[in-house]
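Morning F.,

Quick status update on the modeling queue. The single chain you submitted on Monday has been processed. Sequence for confirmation:
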Amino acid sequence: MSVDRIFDELGHFKRFQACLYFAAVFQAIACGIHYLASVFLVERPSFVCAPPGNITDVLYGNYTGASLEEVLPFFKPANGPVVVRTAEGEQWELSTCQRTQRINPTDFTYEQLINRTTEKCDGNYHYVYDHSEVYQSIVTDWDLVCDREWLAKLCQPTFMIGVLVGALVFGDIADRVGRRRILMITSLCQFVFGVSVAFTGNYYLFMVIRFLLAMVSSGYLVVVFVYVTEFTGNKVRTWTSMHVHAAFAVGVMMVAISGYLVRTWRSYQIILSTCTSPFLFFCWKFPETPFYLMAKGRLQETQVLLDSIARFNGLEPGRLRAENLLEPEEALLEKEVTAGVAQPVEPERKLSILDLFGTWRMAWRTVTVWAVWFIGSLGYYVFSLGSVNLGGNQYINLFLAGAVEFPSYLIGCYAMDRVGRKRTCATALLLAGTACMLIIVVPNDIEVLAIILSMTGKFAIAIAFGLIYLYTCELYPTIIRSLAVGSGSMMCRVGSVVAPFCVYLADIWQYLPQLIVGILAFIIGVLTLWLPETLGEPLSSTMEEAEALGRKKSPEEGNKDPEEGLEINLNQSN
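Structure tokens below.
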């Protein structure tokens, strides 16, 4: 099936494709927003256990005041407790998870050698939070501190589990019912679930709705990559697929800006969930992709779509016939079926994830591709989530973590079209590994250098992470393309689930997360060199065409289209 002829005849990226592309990519901003929103949803301000009674005096080191709010901005648990005196004359030493009462104090000083009684703060007591930076988060609303701190830490991993499930489920469904329906359903659900999160009254309902939000956000992101890939020609496919990630990066930057401007989590969530709502007014006009329609044998619908594209692009309708896109054997069978001479061969076979492992060649390809998805996601989120812990201003750090992706995609696109997909991917992974190793040797007091190296690692990993979507689309045929991207995204979300726990390993050793990412990036970067090159190759439609990628071609085949870069495959096959 020579569906790529559509773009040779009707344009690789003319007015029709451009309007459709920017409309579909606009909603991808919401995916970046929801994926990183938890950074400030679960932000934990300084806090201490609340004392009984009304406070009249407060001491903390050299700081004095009449209320806890005056000294909490300077409170650090490692530097000692906050000492308070109540209206009843009692004196208490307040720490994060316990409070200590002084027995018969002589005077009100910071340190006294007297008897004390200590009691643990639990569900029977309240906490006092510093509202100077974070006015309200789910941590302050539901006291997710001390013995309940693990509930706050589960927020991001649980969301990523939902992303994992959504990637697999919606990728499979999109191959069965079409890309268009999934885009419409998931975009509507993103808006509904996103706003609903802000009105949850307890932690458990919050987690359930966030899980559903994760599923639909993942579903949209997986399918939109396939959608824009199947609507653009191979001359621009690199740029169009990579820059879907640019929209995701815009979402990350919007999280940083909104987190800085809005310090109450409910308002913050509503603003983030409604900023892409205009997409809902025109997503219902999206057409199904010609690749999907042809793969399902729906030639009449394909013809209507081809005429619409031609008309919108200022070309004459009818210049390209759907039946002419079929191979000779397919075209003959189609004519016989239409004329009643022959019947369709057999019912369409249902495809599953096992089809990605149909042969040893495809199995090795799938394992390597999944590994790239995994390390891309693990590194991406270790650098992103860890950016707020690098020192300095956390909002600026997160904003930079999103902004640095723009040059990475520009350079990545240029390299992909010059040196090929696999060499660009391998080089990016090796650079990310190098940045991780260099962060390890940076002294703790040089925060600026640590931030620069972290952004370099994010820059490199973003290239590999952005490239693998397109690379996966080109490595697999139409009939399982969405499933391949969906299952790859599933492995990507396994990395996303692991990433928060990997960041927590910094409690054991500050640079252990970077060491893990660096080692894996080097190993997988080397394995990537065994994948076939797809630069300049048309999208495959059958398993046989996909399996033939990278194999040694005859001189006649190798010289068919040298301008499209097939000679690169010949050199690498030798």
